[in-house]
Structure formats: structure tokens, C-alpha cells
From TrEMBL, chain A:
<dbReference type="GO" id="GO:0005315">
    <property type="term" value="F:phosphate transmembrane transporter activity"/>
</dbReference>
<dbReference type="GO" id="GO:0005886">
    <property type="term" value="C:plasma membrane"/>
</dbReference>
<feature type="transmembrane region" description="Helical">
    <location>
        <begin position="346"/>
        <end position="367"/>
    </location>
</feature>
<feature type="domain" description="ABC transmembrane type-1">
    <location>
        <begin position="225"/>
        <end position="437"/>
    </location>
</feature>
<feature type="transmembrane region" description="Helical">
    <location>
        <begin position="225"/>
        <end position="250"/>
    </location>
</feature>
<comment type="similarity">
    <text>Belongs to the binding-protein-dependent transport system permease family. CysTW subfamily.</text>
</comment>
<keyword id="KW-0812">Transmembrane</keyword>
From TrEMBL, chain B:
<dbReference type="GO" id="GO:0016020">
    <property type="term" value="C:membrane"/>
</dbReference>
<dbReference type="GO" id="GO:0016887">
    <property type="term" value="F:ATP hydrolysis activity"/>
</dbReference>
<keyword id="KW-0067">ATP-binding</keyword>
<dbReference type="GO" id="GO:0005315">
    <property type="term" value="F:phosphate transmembrane transporter activity"/>
</dbReference>
<keyword id="KW-0378">Hydrolase</keyword>
<dbReference type="GO" id="GO:0035435">
    <property type="term" value="P:phosphate ion transmembrane transport"/>
</dbReference>
<dbReference type="InterPro" id="IPR027417">
    <property type="entry name" value="P-loop_NTPase"/>
</dbReference>
From TrEMBL, chain C:
<dbReference type="Pfam" id="PF00528">
    <property type="entry name" value="BPD_transp_1"/>
</dbReference>
<feature type="transmembrane region" description="Helical">
    <location>
        <begin position="260"/>
        <end position="282"/>
    </location>
</feature>
<feature type="transmembrane region" description="Helical">
    <location>
        <begin position="201"/>
        <end position="223"/>
    </location>
</feature>
<feature type="transmembrane region" description="Helical">
    <location>
        <begin position="302"/>
        <end position="322"/>
    </location>
</feature>
<dbReference type="GO" id="GO:0006817">
    <property type="term" value="P:phosphate ion transport"/>
</dbReference>
<protein>
    <recommendedName>
        <fullName>Phosphate transport system permease protein</fullName>
    </recommendedName>
</protein>
<dbReference type="InterPro" id="IPR000515">
    <property type="entry name" value="MetI-like"/>
</dbReference>
Amino acid sequence: MTDQTASQPSSKHGSLLAVDARTKKRNAAETRFKAYGIGALLIGLFFLVTLLTAIVSNGSTAFSQTYISLDVTLNAEKLDPNGTGDRDEIAKVTTLGYTQIIAEAVANTMAANEIESPLPAGALPLMVSASAAAQIRDTVLADPSLVGQTVTFNVLASSRVDGYLKGRVTRESLARDRNLGPPHLDIVDQMLDAGVVEKRWNLAFITGADASESRPEQAGIGVSMLGSFFMMLVVLFLSLPIGVAASIYLEEFAPQNKFTDFIEVNISNLAAVPSIVFGILGLAIFIQIMHLPQSAPLVGGLVLTLMTLPTIIISTRASLKSVPPSIRDAALGVGASKMQSVFHHVLPLAMPGILTGTIIGLAQALGETAPLLLIGMVGFIASNYPDGLASGFLDPNSAMPAQIYEWAKRADPAYYERAWGGIIVLLVFLMTMNIIAILLRRRFERRW
Amino acid sequence: MNDMRQIERAVDMKQTKITARGVQVYYGDNHAIKDVSVEIADKTVTAFIGPSGCGKSTFLRCLNRMNDTISICRVEGDILIDNEDIYDPRVDPVQLRAKVGMVFQKPNPFPKSIYDNVAYGPKIHGLARNKAELDEIVEKALRRGAIWDEVKDRLNAPGTGLSGGQQQRLCIARAVATEPEVLLMDEPCSALDPIATAQVEELIDELRQSYSVVIVTHSMQQAARVSQKTAFFHLGNLVEYGETGEIFTNPEDPRTESYITGRIG
Amino acid sequence: MSALWIALIVLALAAGGYVLGRKRALASVGGNTRHLHSLPSYYGANVAMMAAVPALILLVIWLILQPMVLNRMVAPMIGSVAAGEAGEMSLVMSDVRRVADGLDAAVDQGVLSGAEARDMQSDSTDVRATLSNVGVALGSDVTAETLSAAQRYRALSSTGSLLMTVVVLAVALAGAITATLRTHRDFRARNVVEHGMRVLLIGAACFAILTTLGIVLSLIFNTVKFFNLYPASDYFFGLTWSPSFGGGSSLGILPLLWGTLYISVIALAVAVPIGLFAAIYLSEYATPRIRAFAKPMLEVLAGIPTIVYGLFALLTVGPLLVSVFGEGGFAGVGWMQGGTAVMTAGLVMGIMLIPFVSSLSDDIINAVPQTMRDGSLGLGATKSETVRQVVLPAALPGIVGAILLAASRAIGETMIVVLGAGAAAKLSLNPFEAMTTVTAKIVSQLTGDADFSSPEALVAFALGMTLFVITLGLNIFALWIVRKYREQYE
């Protein structure tokens, strides 16, 4: 034993106030290690920011669209050669018959604004969307008395013009384009100065239907949104009751035996089965064997229900488990049956947790794409709104993620903007659902 | 109760190892330790007693800055070991803890072999230059922990496979292996059965030869059996501090008396 | 009558039964509920349950079975057309159903009368034109056989529907009546109702088994069909994947497995270090405020649908990588031909898996008892020494389990590889080359109007089976490890 005085630091350890070399080295290692952790976290957050930036910067333009306001002379000689004013008579003129009228309208509008055109008159309507003819025809059919008058229409510009205004299309990129050439852009510039061409808020993207491959400017996500909505209805009304019932059985009633174990193993494995396998199941069982209609939201909903069930069961069981046994004992103690104790006391107390889990499960189902590919919800052009409930469930439709995939596959880069825009819409839905779930949890969370 | 034993054990005047002056500890808004001043002697067993929640463990954890690991904990006042302020910004807690070892309430061997458990401290502090030296340190520590004979044939067996009392002695050996000067023990026997407790207490008495031992205990009998000096904490205050014999036979403060006679606690 | 209406009528019956049963129970004790065995509502519920449950179950089963039975009955009528090919048979049958649906639509819209639809002859009327008028487009002209089969199908299906209506409603009524008759003061209504509910609960729990069974059966059944058409050894050991729907395809799975593994390895190489270090930082170093901010932020990555990642790979990461590693890119190496590549998909999939790895590891690291850390810190170890030498070794089994779960995710991931990895199956080592995966090929073989009996389509089921077996094995193994690990600290 060494004899030490209080003023002399111990020989074994040296003064605490001086950091020895080894400790310095160890502290450096500590700093490095911590830096790795911070680095990893920052990289993760960087990816998140990059992803969100990519989505917003590429997708936000889908919410505005270029329109051209045209003074269209609805030439009576062309539309109603016999001068009957009869709607059926006018309806005989197909959209093709309106092409000439639009060409004249473009020329007139340019002349009115003193815009010189180096191009032949026939090349001018290419700046206008192919949907314009149908738009004008529909207006005329709705009010045949317009024939012969000059009416101002706001028609969609073609996707190239739209892309030019959004910076996606340049004179260089148009050099080899079949549809539009650099001279068109000169005209567009002048029209822009004259206020004939204008970029506007594009509600049609959110509410509208999908369009054919050649008309990206017209495509909207509205119909597939309805498809998703009907699918979610199916998922909600099937997976919530079945999931809750299954959880109640497993958590409250199931005896400890092989059968219960088997169910549990099944549930935990189903939760990790790749979603595409559920698509195969849907294809084989619902379509090949049960002959349910292809591409129908009902089938999509059924597949997603099976996929979501494990998630809902797992979260429901967790919230049932968090209700303390004393509650059950109290109910049983006053003579309630087991079933009454569960349905009168445990279930209401677990309800906020169950709803939170269900919403999160639904959000997962809403964003799921792969199984929908196999039951035919892709490749289908969702151009018609479902009329009525039965049609909503049974008629072919697309779903938001499937629609996004469909757009991403199309050749025209104008559709990429739509796909990103579709993602924004989808993410807004998912975010809302998750926020509701979080609020629900905050509001009703109970600490026992 | 062998209260007679500690009376015979005269306390020599020893060097002061640890000096605490006006220590205040806050957990967030909770004032856990209120103005505690105490001097702890070298080569002595000092016991902190008091009802649960009185702050004795908190104060113990101040002595090797284990409270640093709790982010909401704030310590004021001075704590000096060998006349050096351990809360001085120049002090590295890592070095401090090598000098002030600690044994915890629940035996907490690492999920490693018995050998690796003991060798862990010497390895990280670089106390051994080669394998032979390390072997020597491990053996010495295990002998000091009074567990060598029980484990020498299975040094590669996992430490978690030992019995509770053996695990705790292993943890003491582990703490001793870094050659500390102060050994803090936070209720080291509370998770052990009476036989294991007796073995550990015997060990503590031996450790007094080489270290300044500070032990927190909720058992007054244990304090009486193993310590020379006793400090009684109550609601964050140090109520009374003195010779163990004095405290137990002739307490000055009425609160100490109430606690010892079992009226509070 | 449509199934929806039948269901509504059954529910109405059940509601009426509830009121009736309750009334009858009260009447049997003269309004004094204390003499009843159960609460009056249980008597009502008993009647409602007996009315609705068997009838609705019957309805669902009928709806599932009727098309299958009809197919069986109508199929012999067109047996001569395509006796040999099972695939053509199913194509013809779908034509038959389409024509039948078209006739229904025509009758609904008043284009045809019921009798016309029944007696129409294909040589006298242009069925195709008639049907296209009502919005049902047919691929080819309708043969006499198809038309007569369709007419028979229509007739049978309307008979079937009528029968279904009658039987289901009869069952509902019978249930309601028996239950009402049994309602009496001493009847143990609560016990019966609770027993019934219990059976329903068990039924719900069995859905998990049914789903698994459905998956396994649909995979096995079609896989066996595939192996009857294509030799299993060529499938498992074939080095080329070149399906052609005209026949003579090589359908070797090895290039696909290689692509899958390659992409998964890259994904894990991105996700595991980042996820693990982020988890360590969050659980060991971060202040509560940083943790409260960063953890949910990382988990946002997990909540983003895979289609978004797919698009991100296709349109952002792919072009970015090409601009670096492509011809004339920054790096000047010219390794990359196009945006879709193993690297693109792997990188993006790695990003997707970061939160998965980090939150699982976070849970596992947090499960290591605090006393273990205290023990190490108390010996004078630094935090990083504690993490590396005590916490991580203790958490290792759990982390391995988490990585295996992440691997199973990566192998089963579809959208990212469909959009980001490319379509060509290749056995190459260059990570900047386009390759394809098992999941991507399942999608490409089963989308479109493929003939479901050709080996080119059926191979998708064999691929699905392979995928299912691999991921299932990984999951079971991983869950087993994680459970073992948790038991250790409980």
C-alpha cells in the first residue's frame, strides 16, 4: 500500500485534470464514431429531402396548364349546312369536322393580335390540343343556337406548347419534332405577350379522366381517384370487422393450443409476404376461378383487404393487449360474461388504437401498386366516371398508384409531369390519413 | 444483530479521499440532492443509508459522474477526489471512472465469457501490454473478487451463466480489474440471497484494505455490519454523518433515530 | 334480383326479427324483464342472428360457386371447338360470358326483347354489331356455337339467380321463424348468441389460414401445370431467359435470381450501414429533441409508396447516374448505357430500406438493458466502446434478424425494379447494366392479354412460388432469431 498525501495525486492514475495520451486517442475514436452516426442520419434525411424536392419540383407544374383563348366562329355552313338548327342534325358533324373551324379560329385570333405567321395555316392548329374539337362540339350540342355566332373558347394548348411555357420544351428539343417546330414557339411567344396564351390553375388534373397517349395535356387523375376510393371502401368494410374479430378471438378467447399457434404463424408470415404474391393470389382465385370482372375496384379491394388484414390484426392485438387485465376482471367481477366484458369494456377502450392501426393499414393499401398490376388495373384507360355504386365497384377502373405507373410507362415525357403530379395527389392523401392517425393517437392515448 | 462487532472496530484517522461541498442535484425541476457536504476517508467503508428515494443513489452516482449519462440531470457544488474537482471541465469522465469504479444493484455481466468480462476494463484502458499480463490481471481481479476458485476452470463460459451471487462477485472483480482507488457500490446485495449476500459482504470487508469503498444500502443491518462510517440521507438532505457505531447507538438527529428504530422508511 | 338487394332484404328480415324476438320475450314474462334468463336484447339478437348469418353465408358461397358450376355445364356445348387446348377453352368460355353479358345489356337497354335474345341465330343477325351498339365490343364474329352456348349460359344463370333468391330468402325466413318460436322466458338467449359470436370470431381468425391456403394452392396448382409443359430442370438451371409467346422460349430462372440478388445486395449495402448507424446515433447519442424530430422524419421514408420510389429511380436517380457514369459523364468511364440499371434500382431500394433497418435496429438496441451500458460506462468505457463492445454484440442476433427481414423485403420488392432495373435478363457483373428480377418478370409475364395456359404465362406462377418460398424461409428464420433474442432479455 502506497502512502499518499492528499496533495499528491495517485501514482496509479495520475492527475484527473490532465488527459493522458491514451484517453485522447479513445476520445478521438469516440468523436469519429459519433460522426458516423450523425453522418448516417444526415444521409438518410438528405435522401428524404432529395426525394421530396424531386417530387415537388417535377410534379407541381402538373397543377397548372396552358390555355389558349380562341374566338371561334361557328360556321353555320359547316356545322348545320341545312340550317335546321336541329340538335341531331348538328350532331352528325364529327369532331373531325371542327378541325377547319379551329384552324380558322387560330388564324383569326392571330390576325386580331397582329401576329405574323411564317407557317402555312394548316400547321397552326397543332398548337391547340386535340381535345379542343370535342370541347367545342360539346358546347355547340348543348346549345345549338350558338351556330353561326362567334364565341370565345378557352381551349387547352397542346402538350408541347404547355411544355414550352413550363420550360420542359425548348427550341432545340423541337428541332426534330414531328408536331411542332421552333416557328410555332415564336408565335406562342407573341401570343403570350398578347395575353391569348395563358397558364392557369389546372383543376382538371385533379378531377379529370385519363386521356389517350397523344393528349397528355388533357389527362387527369380524378377517375382513378374514384377507383382508389371504391377500393378503400371495400378494404375498410372488410378488413376492419374481420381484423377486429380475428384479433378479439386471438387475444381474448383463443386457447393456448396448436391451432392458435398455427393461426399466429400464418398471420406473422402473411405480414411479410411480398405484395406481388397477393396479386398472383387475386389473379388466380378471384379472376380465374371466381370469374370476377378484371380491373374492377372490387377485386382490387379484395386483394388489398387480404394484404392489409395482417397489419390490422397485429395493431389491433397490440391495442387490445394494452388494456389492463384489471378492467376485464372488474367487468367479470360484477357478473358480466366474457363476451360482455370484451364488447362493453375492452373494445371501446382499445378503439382509438384500433382505428389508428386501421388508418395506417388503409394508407399502406392506398399506395400499393404491384398486386393491382396483376389484376389488370394497369393498361386500362380510366376515361369514364363510374355511374352509381354498383358500377363504381364492378366496372373496370384504375387506381391512383396504377395510374401513376401507367403514365410513367408512356413514351411522351409530358406524361412524366403527370406522374409526378399524381404522386403529389397521392402523398397528400397519405399524409392526411397519417396525420389523422397521429391526432387520433394523441387525442385518445391513454396511459394505464 | 451483531451490533457489537462494529463497536470493536475502531476507526483510525484516515486520509480524506473524497470531499463534497454544497452539492446540489436537480432532475429537471426536481431538486434531488440539497446542499450535501461530506468527507469520505480512504481505506474505509462508508455506507449511505436512508429510505428509498432519499437521494443516496443519486449522490453516489455523482461521485463518478454516472449522472452525466442522464441528460436532464444537473449537478452543482464541488466534489473533489484527491483534491481535484471532478466536475472541472478539464476532467474526462472516462479517466475518472477508471479511478472510481462502480458496482451496480443488479449483477450486470456482459454477454461475454467470464474472462472477457474481467478483461474488458483493462483492455479499454490499455493496462496490459500482452496476453500474459492480461491473464495475470484477470486472475488477480478474480482472486480479489473471491470468485477465482469457482470459475478458474471455466473462464470461457459465459458470465451470464453464473448464479446471482457469483455474477455480482464477477462484477466486483470486473470493477477491481481496472485498479480503481474508489469503489462505489449501489445496493450490491439487494438482488442476492442471504448466503450470497454474506459472501459479498465479506468481500467488501476485505476490499477495505486497498480501496475507499462507498456503499449504498437500504439495509441498516448491512450498513452496521460492513461500514465504519455511515451517512443518513432523508429527502435529499444529508441528515447525519459519523462513525457507524455512533449513528446506530446514539443518533443525534431525531429523524435518524426514527429511521433506525423503524418509524420512518 | 341482384345479390345486393337480396342481402338488403335479408338484413331487413333480421332487423324485423330483432324487434319481434324482443317483443315475444317480453310478452312471455308479461313485461317483467327480471324473469327472463337473458336481457331482452339478446332474444332479439338471437332471432336476427339466426335470420341473417346462415342466409348471408349461403349467399356468398352461392355467388362464388354459381359461375364455376355454370362454366362446367356450358363447357361441353363448345367441346368440339377446342377439345385439345385447355387455354383456348378458357378463351372461348370468356367469349361466351361476354356475349351473354352483352345480351343482358342489350335486353336492359331495350335494343332486344327477352325473346329475341333467347332465340337469336348467329346466321340471321349480326350479333357483333348488335352488341357493339350497346357498348360490348367483341374481338371476332360470334360463331353459332358460341352464341348458343351464351344463350344457354344466360338461361342457366337467370335460373340460378332465381333459385338463389328463393333459397337464400327461405333460409333467412326459416332461421327467423325457428328462432322466434324458441324465444321463451327460459331460453338461454345470451349463451346462444355468445356462442354464435364466438363461432364468427373464430371464422374471422381463420381468414389468415384461408389466405395462406389460397396463396399456396394457387401457386402450386399453376406451377404444376407449368412443369407439365416445361421441364423443371431447364427452369431451375437454365442460364437464359428469353420468353417468346410464339413458343420455343427458354425460361431459366438463374439470370432472374442473379438480378434479384445483385440488386438486393446493393440495396442492403446502402441501407444496412446507414440504417444501423442512424439507429445507433438515435438510441445512444441523440438528445430527446433530435430523436423526436429525426426518427419520424426517417419513418416518412417508410410511409412513401413504392411506386414513388420507382418513379424516383426511373426519372431522377437513373438519369443522374448516367450523367456521372454514362458515356461522356463526369466520371468519364462510360460504364452505363441507360438510366435503368442494377445500380439505380439497388440504390433507390436501399433508400427505401433505411427506415426499415433503422427502426428495427432501434427497437433491438433499446431492448439491450440499460444496466449493461451502465456496467460498461462505470468501468470507464467511452460511449462508442460501450456500443461496439457491449451493446452491439448483445444486440447482434436481433440485428441479423432485422437485416434478414430487410433482405426479404428487397427480394420481394416489385415497383422499384419494374421501373428502375430494366427488362433484359442478364448474367453480368457490371452493376451499371440493366438486369431484371423475379418480381419484374412476374409482372411482365402476367400483364397484358396473355393466354394463361401457355408456359410463358404459367412461368410467372413458378416464379411466384420461388419467390414465396425464398421470402417465407427468410422470414421464418429471421422471426425465429428475433424471438430468441427477445426472450433472452425478458
